[in-house]
Design brief:
- With about 220 residues, this protein is of the alpha/beta class.
- It folds into two domains: about 140 residues, HAD superfamily/HAD-like (Rossmann fold, 3-Layer(aba) Sandwich), CATH 3.40.50; about 60 residues, DNA polymerase, domain 1 (Orthogonal Bundle), CATH 1.10.150.240.
- It is built from eleven helices and five strands.
- A five-stranded parallel β-sheet has the order 3-2-1-4-5, sandwiched between helices.
- Helix 10 links the parallel strand 4 and strand 5.
- Helix 3 runs antiparallel to helix 4.
- The longest helix is centred in the first third of the chain and has 17 residues.
């Protein structure tokens, strides 16, 4: 067969595969933690509960929280510094340890989603890693308490990488460190804004609503338990 004909047939075959929606096999799943497999660690709802329990001034507390949030979740401010700046800048009728314990207690498992992650990780067909925004001490409490090392091979947490979602840098670092192409990866997150940049970089994205929906969308990408 003439060489130019061989080349034309190869190009035609590639075009046909592209037309059929040919895509790279998914080999890596990046998981948000809060709102997917666990409750949020220290979100607005948790802070409102703290204000009610400890009789704080909401406007003052929230203003201080917002000013410290980036440093807190990027590992630049410790938990002790956070509670000192947001709550214990004046005398209180409760201790810092009591307040910190309350913060830790806000973390709870979402059992059905956590069990689905366990099933997927057990197959060892894909790599699973956390990709989340969290402060250092709360993040490590959650890893220990919910045995996340059993499921995740790596933790791309804002407190370790010093950058938060939805900043493009955190997704770029996760891809570089794992040496994965974006097309081979899925980001699972409950917040649409966190998914936008990842999708623009070429990653598959799933906005988590419930386990049945997640299971179905992953199956469509060839990922099953």
């Amino acid at each position: 067969m003439p060489q130019d004909l061989v080349h034309r047939e190869r190009r035609a075959g590639l075009s046909a595969r592209t037309a059929r929606g040919f895509m790279a096999d998914v080999n890596t799943l990046f998981w948000d933690n809060g709102g997917v497999i666990l409750t949020n660690g220290w979100d607005r709802g948790s802070r409102q509960k703290a204000v009610e329990k400890f009789h704080l001034d909401w406007a003052d507390f929230e203003d201080r929280h917002e000013l410290l949030l980036n440093a807190f979740e990027c590992g630049e401010a410790t938990l002790d510094e956070y509670v000192r700046r947001t709550v214990f800048y004046r005398e209180r009728p409760f201790t810092q340890e009591q307040f910190k314990q309350f913060m830790f207690e806000q973390s709870q498992a979402m059992p059905e989603a956590l069990d689905f992650l366990r099933q997927l990780a057990k197959t060892r067909r894909q790599m699973h890693a956390a990709l989340n925004n969290e402060s250092l001490e709360i993040n490590e409490y959650r890893i220990r308490t919910f045995h996340l090392r059993d499921y995740f091979s790596a933790f791309f947490s804002s407190c370790y990488l010093a950058v938060r979602k939805p900043d493009r840098g955190i997704y770029s670092l996760a891809l570089k460190i794992t040496q994965r192409d974006a097309a081979e990866c899925v980001l699972i997150d409950d917040r649409g804004l966190n998914l936008e940049c990842a999708r623009e970089m070429g990653m598959h994205t799933i906005q988590f609503k419930d386990v049945a929906q997640l299971r179905g969308e992953l199956a469509g990408l060839g990922v099953t338990a």
